[in-house]
Amino acid sequence: MTLSSNDVPSAFSDLRMLIDGRWTAGSGMAGEPVFNPATEGALGRLPHAGPDDLERAVAAAARSFDAWAATPACERRQVLLQAARLLASRIDAIARILTLEQGKPLAEARAELAAAIEVFEWYAEETRRLYGRVIPARSRAVAQVVQHEPVGPVAAFTPWNFPALTPARKIAGALAAGCTVVLKPSEETPATALELARACVDAGLPAGVLNVVFGVPAQVSEYLVRHAAIRKITFTGSIPVGKHLAQLAAAHGLKRCTLELGGHAPVLVFDDAQIEQAARVCAAGRFRNAGQVCVAPSRFYVQRGVAERFTAELAAAARLLVPGDGLDPAATMGPLANPRRLAAMQRYVEDALAAGGRVETGGRRLDRPGHFFEPTVLGGMPDRAAAMCEETFGPIAPVTVFDTPDEALARANALPYGLAAYAFTESPRTAAAVARGLSAGMVGINHLAVSLAEAPFGGVRESGYGSEGGTEGLDAYLSPKFVTHLSA
Ligand code: NAD
């Protein structure tokens, strides 16, 4: 059966928040509509939390913290595993919800949900390894141990580009460590996060351990981050907002932060690379989720001898994409998630032309309802063009030329971002040099698979600090406590 955007699932007709184990519309704040970016039609109406609702959510997270932290890790594991099983059994329905509110093709929505489920499973297993350690003492009368304790109630903020995977990383990491959570997902993609919460509730998570609220982002974060009961902030989103939250967190209790603030991943393509394959891989990575991916390869530095060939292949791969409603099986690229991104793409192309770049393919908004922008490749780009220096967060691939590896590294590292970086080369020596030299939290060589449940995901410099995923992801929610015991 072909699904249509007109059949809106009931999840959207009854959007609620989750506060202290209850699904609630809150205390009557105005709320806002949720739109389908492929049609611009309204899907439903989202309630907002007022100060009373936020207070109840924090109070619930604070009240339930001691019991959840003291719940044996093997029991927390069971809840997370059961949530993963429930999500897997509901994957078709949730994928459709995700596509409707965010826009990505159904196959991408399913892949994102599969990754989110894997995150739940991985953190569930990692609860078995919440070890402490014994430190040999300086005296026989002393016993010394380090134990890891959950930091406390967490305020988590997630964006609209990965409405399942980003909340999953924060929810599963925090719950595995023994923390409780107040999550504020993006108001633009609320229903997917609510389905994750529903799976946790149905899996037996005690009331109050996970709360989900919506509202005006700046007001909600101001309230939660300042609150004395909140002990940890985790945020994925833009650099200015991340800096603002870090300042608030410092001013109000010096709370720990994990900040994943996006990037502008450079790709160095050397003349010994397998050019056709590199271009295909880069096109798939650049245009996935219509380019709204913080680790997407997004500015291309290509060695002079292969630049023309690489650019032509990249443009050819871009032309093969079929933009369309994510529910249409023929569509291979969805719309941009909101009108802000569409306006930004138009600005980036105009700026590129003014700076001396040229459009190799694409460059325009599609003449149809929805926030559709053509997959775009820009050639001959000067480093000063906005698309080369700013995170474009859309389906634009700017290409420039370099001569020497040192020059490529210097230009790649010249921006304040440091999330992901990539290189394509057949030379082990070049690969080692760029792995060492690229200023980034994640480096992919000859492929782009840097986002894995079992590996640390996070940036350096203005891309933020702290990791999600890997054993480092659990550390984010734990504090070491050193206990030294003199017993003579
Ligand atoms: P934005 O900065 O307004 O919002 C980014 C996210 O932060 C949204 O989810 C929003 O709800 C939330 N937010 C905004 N202000 C907040 C506040 N004061 N407190 C708490 N949360 C707040 O930008 P946008 O227009 O949604 O996206 C623009 C840029 O954000 C993109 O170009 C990209 O650079 C960045 N972004 C990064 C990621 C990522 O995965 N790192 C995801 C989404 C957006």
TrEMBL record:
Pfam families: Aldedh (PF00171). It comes from Pigmentiphaga soli. This is NAD-dependent succinate-semialdehyde dehydrogenase. Belongs to the aldehyde dehydrogenase family. PROSITE patterns: ALDEHYDE_DEHYDR_CYS. The keyword Endoplasmic reticulum does not apply. InterPro entries: Ald_DH/histidinol_DH, Ald_DH_C, Ald_DH_CS_CYS, Ald_DH_N, Aldehyde_DH_dom, Aldehyde_DH_Superfamily. Keywords: Oxidoreductase. Residues 23-483 form the Aldehyde dehydrogenase domain.
